[in-house]
Amino acid sequence: MNERLSKRIVPKVTGLYADGDMVIAPWDGKATATDGRPYNASYSWNMEMKESKIFRVIAWLDGIEFQDIMTRLQPAKQ
Prior knowledge:
Layout: E1 5-13, E2 17-19, E3 22-33, E4 38-50, E5 53-61, H1 63-72
Antiparallel strand pairs: 1-3, 2-3, 3-4, 4-5
């Protein structure tokens, strides 16, 4: 994904919710693709905590935006 971006994703956390050992952080990400088009997608990180540290993360993302950039662009050559 990062190889298809000319500017890295800038996250903006839109909420933070906790219940017991589970913390949910929805966020929006904005970036610029290597073709100059904007990449704007929503994410949610569901984090399981253990001893005050992140133990496990399930990450959700905007599948339509992700699929678009992955099929539209090839990774930049390193």
